[in-house]
Amino acid sequence: MRRLTDFKLQNGGGRLKVKQSSNKDAGILDKIRKNYILLLFMLPAVIFFVIFSYLPMYGIVMAFQDYSPVSGVFQSPWVGMENFQEIFRTPKFLDAFRNTIVINVLKLIFSFPAPIIFAILLNELKNLRFKKTIQTISYLPYFVSWVVASGIWYKMLSIDGGVLNELLMTLGLTSEPINFVGTPGWFYPLIIITDLWKNVGWNAIIYLAALSGIDPGLYEAAKVDGAGRFRQIWHISLPGLRPTIAMMLIFAISGLMNADFDQLYNMGNAAVREVGEVLDTLVFRILQTGTMSDYSNGIAMGLFKNVIGFTLFLLANFVSNKLTEEAII
Amino acid sequence: MKKKNRIDAGLGNKTFNFLNVLFMLLFAVVCLYPFIYVLALSFNDGVDAQRGGIYFWPRKFTFENYITVFKDDGILNAYAITLYRVVVGTISSVLLTAAAAYAMSRKSLPFKKFFNWLILLPMYFSGGLIPTYIIISGIGLQDNLLVYVIPSLYATFNIILVRTYMKGLPEALHESAVLDGANEFIIFVRLYLPLSMPVIATISLFIAVGHWNDWYTATIYTSTKELWPASTLLQNILTSSEISSYVNTKFFTQQMNRRPVVTPEALKMAMLIVTTVPIVLVYPFVQKYFVQGMMIGSLKE
Predict the structure, then answer these.
(1) Best CA proximity match to B147, nearest among B155, B136, B138
(2) 3-class SS of residue A96
């Protein structure tokens, strides 16, 4: 009797794990032979990921080398952390680091909540055809590239004949055309506004789907209890969105080091570089205009960015897991 | 008292609805207006447009800007390259992605865990731009038209999307096909590929739009503008003050004595529209697939 209890305790409250004896090991060659077609399907993918994802990861070691193309990755001298010390003495890098953080924090404040609000408001529309039409229109800017988007916005904001400046001058709000795209002070508002214009509709999709999953009976019950629209939104819609918001927040926070390269490269120009240069555009410019000897620094910057990004991802994932039981991995 | 409250609530409701509809209309205008503005300018005489005042409709209507775009050999060449990469790139990418996704959807795939990690890890960590550049140019893809196709063949997100869909198909289908003596290749081509059309359509569109919009690859991996797709050419035309280095300038000079005249600005507007129109034409029909794709993709594995 006593022995039985001990045994139970040892096994974590009495659940017995029956280990199945299998002949897996013996069958692995057999399994490969039987499924060789599936393995052939995987073969190009394996080659692809090894060449285009894993070999570049190995290239990271160059961040610790004084890379010279003549000696290559295997022969270049090791310099330890010297490249990192050097980039932290480079004002351009420090500026880009600061700009990356500032732009992302601004986006977190403005661009993150916007699709949530948009989805909730869209969800409140009663006429379904109107709702569908608005939704379709709201996606449109997402599908054009930032090259096209910047071309369009530069024209709209142009100092000679751009529609916005003409409007402002007609209304008497300004006597001189404002150089929106060439003034550092206007750059961040411009980035936020064009980001909202391009992405709000698209980013709202995931929240709309979550809203459509909320039981309509909850809204009915709230109405009977005399709750107005805002209270319904506050007490039913928002709590229903919580898991989705948590998941999207993890993505947003882990992407804190990736300012949207396409947007910043195309919307930026030399006149606003001091506020518009981010880590991604800086590394890109090093690749474009720098000599091979700058590569090690560029790779060090890329690695610095990736390590912080990955750490943020793990951190956000962990915190979210603790708080809401929502996690990506 | 209670009744009055309800009327107040009703009034609040009406105001809310009214303001909400108003906001949505305003939002739609903000989304669409930039396109309308550029469209009007692209159909307007270039010199006339410099006077300003064109907001919704061309004042001095002309097709000349578009004719110039379609007469320029450099621009046509760029669109031909874009077409090539959209067609070749999308077809090869979709087929290979579907094959890999099919294999990964099968329980019998050996080393499944290994393959899973192999495709998942690059989503969270990458070597960065410069090491990738060194590899890609190192294997001879520099100044090679294959650079538009090969490095973008697979994307982890797309594989997961298709795999999730295929996993949802009834296992009995596969079993009965096996009983009929079909091998995995036949089952994939004849059964799973046709049955997965909704998700195949979704990723085809993601991939095709990606190819159409990509200006970046050419900027890094090509050194002559003869190899550029339209988006890269457009990007350079938009950012450079010297448009003549990209387009045949005879269009601006030869026609000086003849109206209407094409200006570099007007040409840019026409090119913006030519680059946007295919997307605008396609997307209302395919957006439901995109939305579906977003939904499948957001499901947690």
Answers:
(1) B136
(2) helix
Q: What is the mean pLDDT of residues A270-291?
A: 87
Mean pLDDT of chain A: 84
State both tokens at B275: 């680059």
Closest CA to B27 of A328, A43, A118, A295: A118
Given this model, what pLDDT does residue A21 score? 46
d(CA B114, CA B119): 9
User: B260: cis peptide before it, omega within 30°?
Assistant: yes
The per-residue pLDDT for range B36-90, each reduced to its tens digit, is: 999 999 999 888 888 878 889 998 888 888 988 888 888 999 999 999 999 999 9
Q: Model's pTM, two decimal places?
A: 0.84
Compute how many other C-beta atoms are within 10 angstroms of the C-beta atom of residue B148. Answer: 24
CB contact under 8 A, A60 and B128: yes
Backbone angles phi, psi at B180, to 5 degrees: -75, 0
Report CA-CA distances (Å) from B205 to A20, A138, B283: 46, 18, 9
Q: What sign results for the dihedral spanned by CA atoms A250, A256, A257, A263?
A: positive
- State how far the Cα of B66 lies from the Cα of B68, in Å rounded to an integer: 5
Q: Which residues in chain A are contacts of B4 at CB distance < 8 A?
A: none
Whole-Å CA distances, A2 to A5, A12, B135: 5, 16, 67
Of residues A38, A197, A201, nearest to B108 (C-beta) = A38
Residues 6+ apart with CB under 8 A from B263: B46, B47, B49, B50, B252
Measured over the CA atoms of residue A73, residue A78, residue A81 and residue A85, the dihedral's sign is negative
- Between CA A108 and CA A86 the distance in angstroms is 31
Neighbouring CB atoms inside 10 A of B146's CB total 13
Lowest mean pLDDT among A190-194, B5-9, B100-104: B5-9
What confidence tier does A2 reach under pLDDT thresholds 50, 70, 90?
very low
Identify whether the C-beta of residue B220 lies closer than 8 Å to the C-beta of residue B141.
no
- The secondary structure of A210-227 as a DSSP string is HHHTS-HHHHHHHHHTT-
**Distance of residue A7 Cα from the nearest chain B Cα, in angstroms:** 34
Per residue in B230-280, pLDDT (tens digit) is 999 999 988 876 666 676 656 565 555 555 467 888 888 999 999 998 888
Residue ranges in A163-278 assigned as alpha helix (H): 163-170, 184-212, 216-224, 229-232, 238-254, 261-267, 273-276
Q: Is B127 helix (H, G, I), strand (E, B) or coil?
A: coil
- The closest CB to that of B37, out of A163, A197, A269, belongs to A163
> B110: which chain A residues are within 8 Å (Cβ-Cβ)?
28, 31-32, 35, 38-39
For residues B269 and A155, is the Cβ–Cβ distance under 8 A? yes
Minimal CA–CA distance to A328: which of A235, A241, A252, A233? Answer: A252
Judge whether B18 is closer than 8 Å to chain A, CB to CB.
Answer: no
Tens-place pLDDT, residues B98-138: 999 999 999 999 999 999 999 988 887 888 888 899 899 88
Question: Which residue has tokens 């000086």?
Answer: B256
Residues of B in contact with A302 (CB under 8 A): 127-131
ipTM attached to this prediction: 0.86
**Predicted pLDDT at B1:** 43
